[in-house]
Amino acid sequence: MKRRTWILSALGLGGAMVVGWSVLPPRSRTGAAGLMARGTDGVALNGWLRLAPDGHVVLAMPRSEMGQGVFTALAMLVAEELDLPLERVRIEQAGTDRIYGNVAMFVESLPFHPRDIDADPQPALVRTGRWMLAKVARELGIQVTGGSSTVADAWGPLRLAAATARAQLLAAAARAWQLPAKELATETGEIVHASGKRASYFSLAPLATGEAPGDVAPKPRDGWKLIGQPAPRLDIPAKVDGSARFGIDVRLPDQRYAAIRMSPVLGGTLASVDEAPARALPGVEQVVRLPAEAGASGGVAVIAKTWWQAERAVAALKPVWAAPQGELPDSNRIRQKLEAAVREDKGLAFHSRGDVAAAEAQAGARVVEAVYAAPYLAHAALEPINCTAQVSQGRVQIWLPTQVPGAARDAAAKAAGVSSDQVTVNVTLLGGGFGRRLDVDVVPQAVRIAMAANGQPVQLLWSREEDMGHDFYRPMNVARLRAVLDPQGAPLALESVSAGDAITPRWLARTLPLLAGPIDTPDKTTAEGLIDQMYGFPNQRLAHVTTRSGVPVGFWRSVGHSHNAFFIEGFIDELAEQTKQDPVAFRRALLKDAPRHRAVLDMAANKAGWGTPLPQGRARGIALHESFGTIVAQVAEVSLENEKPRVHRVVCAVDCGSVVNPGIVAQQVEGSVVFALTAALYGRIDIEGGVVRQRSFPDYPLLPLAQAPFVETHLVASDRPPTGMGEPAVPPLAPAVANAVYALTRKRLRTLPLLL
């Protein structure tokens, strides 16, 4: 069977086993009003919206806010449809019903090429596969914030929910006033009529709940007043005045604090510990031994009256650790194995067309080959890993910054030995996520600690050193790229073989074990960015070798795109040099059948002044990449200071479909550039004997504010639905800088971080 056919067959079988997709109809994602009725104020019209007496509309928020602006973007969709001022939309954490599950993220995980997804008509396999997985995802209803998918997922169901509420209110007013509904309008939270009649939404809400408005559609594009306009973020005032509550800020009556030490060897366990040194210190109340679970190493924690007391006490312990069986991970040895793999293993071809071998056999054909590499990376979010837990009278409450509240609930239930409906999850603001908070390893630790605290709430806070040394790292990856050029230098073929650990199977096994299969299906997340690139080589074979190094790996902001964009965009620049062409012109020629990508490339080059003179000692580099449905081109203006790259200016062109809030898009681009530049210049995790050598920011530095470049963001107008924006501006940065460094020094940097 063909690989993709097998994947879809397995998906269909798994879906049928879990949720019976073949017999259950698709569930409405608007939901019943009862899902919002648990609120103490107001009247619910559907599962997403409740009308409050003070004139606000309460929005059930199923996604986590970690700086990406989704609280504001989703509120704007509601305010637009209900003709409300944005500040009159209030956020409330959603429940656990299936309507709040993230469908878009799972659909986009399928390994289809963008050319096939955008084809009109779509190939039957693509159309069927995406429908099938959407069906399964709707039925499972997994709440997850990731894959830059929040706005894309909410675009349809949330606007429809708000439009339905609007139609119900209009119908209620028409019936109460004995007027045709078409003569009524909505205006700043009221139903109005030309005669002067008007009534607030809330006053009509009891009548509206019984209305069945029939067919409803969201506003047409030409009716938008708010979508597409810059608007202030709803989460900023509380973050400025200090009232915003992150996980680390949780304070409860009679709260205690816990600090932890885990086995320094990845995957190790606690063999024994003498508790006396900790118990002799002030404020110490309990010492708790912790097993290895949910991907975390085994460890020991101390409960005390303050966190600093707990931290000093746990540091006084001298635990004895047991290393895991087998060969301990070593990053140098892993890289050697990956380099051998890309030379000796053909890998699994995710995308093929034409005949690469036949192209290479043509008379006069020339082969260009290069090997690129990227290291392990930590997430290093500024808010360290934390969770507050309370276990009392058979019930569990947890407060934590998480991207997966359902998985956190299930992990807490398992640790406490209760059913999931006995667990309440309170999602706080996230002080950075970047994919790290898609894991829930801290949750069973916090619950087990709370179980030893006699009903008192306990906040477990990892130190920075524990955070850095026990992450789920971006996998190390190596890629070998080969291109075939004809005697005149025209590209004939492209072959890539990359190698690195699979991410999704490891994450599923530790976070959503019910969805983890007995075997690993091909993992798009590690290979994405190479297997789905859009350059028009007539012959292609794009493959990946899946490895298993023993290092805990996870989703890192932009995932496989973060390193694969560096590989492919550096290599494309190499080919431009080999053919003595300008890098922009060379890319344009390869994108003749990809007009959207070409338009983004042209915008970035034009806005950056590509080809115009720069001050002496500066050069430009360019890179183009699509990820999460969004196309980004970046031009980096670079000089050298003390033999290190200094980036002065980054010009970004973005096609992210319909833009909800251009200010938020620009913010995400700016944050992504700084995040990506930190990784490009400094980021690496080294592992020796199973121990992570980097411990904190002195040896895993962040980009200093004084080194931050000026960032320009330019948006391509589009009438497509919105695509992702939290991650897509990360991948092009490293190759754009590396290509600029080559223009300055004639030295090609093929390994991250960028060291001369």
As residue ranges, the low-confidence spans are 1-27
Distance between the termini: 47 Å
CATH-derived topology of one domain = Aldehyde Oxidoreductase, domain 4
Count of helical stretches: 23
Q: How many whole angstroms does the radius of gyration measure?
A: 27 Å
CATH class of one domain: Alpha Beta
Q: What labels describe this entry?
A:
alpha+beta, 21% strand, Aldehyde Oxidoreductase, domain 4, 32% helix, 756 residues, disordered N terminus, 5-stranded mixed β-sheet, 23 helices
Structural commentary:
The longest helix has 21 residues, at 157-177. Helix 19 (561-578) packs parallel to helix 23 (733-745). This protein is an alpha+beta fold. Strand 15 (386-392) and strand 16 (395-400) form a beta hairpin. Among the domains are: 248-324 and 385-461, Aldehyde oxidase/xanthine dehydrogenase, molybdopterin binding domain (Aldehyde Oxidoreductase, domain 4, 2-Layer Sandwich); 331-376 and 473-745, Aldehyde oxidase/xanthine dehydrogenase, molybdopterin binding domain (Aldehyde Oxidoreductase, domain 4, 2-Layer Sandwich), CATH 3.30.365. It has a 7-stranded mixed β-sheet. The two termini are 47 Å apart. It is 32% helix and 21% strand. Mean pLDDT is 94; it is low at 1-27. It is built from 23 helices and 27 strands.
Write the layout of secondary structure elements.
Layout: H1 3-19, E1 43-44, E2 49-51, E3 57-61, H2 70-82, E4 89-93, H3 104-107, H4 114-118, H5 124-140, H6 150-154, H7 157-177, E5 184-187, E6 190-193, E7 198-200, H8 201-208, H9 236-241, E8 256-262, E9 269-272, H10 276-279, E10 284-290, E11 299-304, H11 307-316, E12 320-322, H12 331-344, E13 348-353, H13 356-360, E14 366-374, E15 386-392, E16 395-400, H14 405-416, E17 423-427, H15 442-451, E18 458-461, H16 464-469, E19 477-485, E20 491-501, H17 504-511, H18 524-527, E21 539-547, H19 561-578, H20 583-590, H21 595-608, E22 619-627, E23 630-641, E24 644-655, H22 662-682, E25 687-688, E26 691-692, E27 710-715, H23 733-745
Parallel strand pairs: 3-4, 8-18, 16-17, 20-21, 24-27
Antiparallel strand pairs: 1-2, 2-3, 5-6, 6-7, 8-11, 9-12, 10-11, 13-21, 14-19, 15-16, 15-18, 19-20, 22-23, 23-24, 25-26
